[in-house]
Write a structure and sequence with these properties.
By secondary structure, the chain is of the alpha/beta class. It has one domain: 3-Layer(aba) Sandwich (Hypothetical Protein Ychn, Chain: A), CATH 3.40.1260. Helix content is about 40%, strand content about 20%. The protein contains 5 helices and 5 strands. It has a 5-stranded parallel sheet, with helices on both faces. The longest helix is centred in the N-terminal third of the chain and has 19 residues.
C-alpha cells in the first residue's frame, strides 16, 4: 500500500509540471484583404491609413494584411508619379505584417511596367481575381 501511494505521488508530480509549462496559445492570425481601386489620392491614403491603424490597434497580435491595388488607384503606387503614396505605403510595409499586389492587367492597360511600382509590390494577373482568391482562403474583405 505504501508503495502504491509513493507511485501515485510520483506520477502526480511528473504530470503537474507539464500542465504548468503549457505555452500560452497565440491568438489566431487575423487575415484581411484591403481592396483599393479608388480614383482619388485621398481615398487611397484613407485605405492605407485604415490598414496602419488596424495593425497598430492589434498590438502584438499576428496579422497578415494584403493590399490589392488596381484601376485608377494604381497610379499612386508608381515611381515617378505626380503624387505617389510612397511614405504612406512605407509606413504600412514597415510593420512586417502587410504586403501589396498590383494588377498586371491595369499595368498593361496604361502601358506601365512592373519595374515602375513602388518598393515591395508584386504583380498578380488580375486584381479582382486576387481579391476573390484571398476571400476564398478566409481573408476578411475590407474596401475603404
Amino acid at each position: 500500500m505504501h508503495r502504491r501511494g509513493f507511485l501515485t505521488a510520483l506520477l502526480a508530480l511528473s504530470v503537474a509540471p507539464r500542465a504548468w509549462a503549457q505555452p500560452r496559445r497565440r491568438a489566431p492570425v487575423l487575415r484581411a484583404v484591403f481592396h483599393l481601386g479608388a480614383a482619388t489620392r485621398a481615398d487611397v491614403v484613407r485605405g492605407l491609413t485604415n490598414m496602419r491603424n488596424a495593425l497598430a490597434a492589434l498590438g502584438d497580435e499576428p496579422a497578415d494584411f494584403v493590399l490589392v491595388v488596381h484601376g485608377a488607384a494604381l497610379a499612386y503606387f508608381l515611381r515617378g508619379a505626380e503624387d505617389p503614396v510612397t511614405d504612406e505605403l512605407a509606413a504600412v510595409m514597415a510593420t512586417g505584417r502587410a504586403s501589396w499586389r498590383a494588377c498586371a492587367r491595369t499595368l498593361e492597360e496604361h502601358r506601365w511596367q512592373p519595374r515602375d511600382l513602388l518598393p515591395g509590390g508584386t504583380t498578380v494577373p488580375s486584381g479582382t481575381l486576387a481579391v476573390l482568391r484571398l476571400q476564398q482562403r478566409g481573408y476578411a474583405y475590407f474596401r475603404p
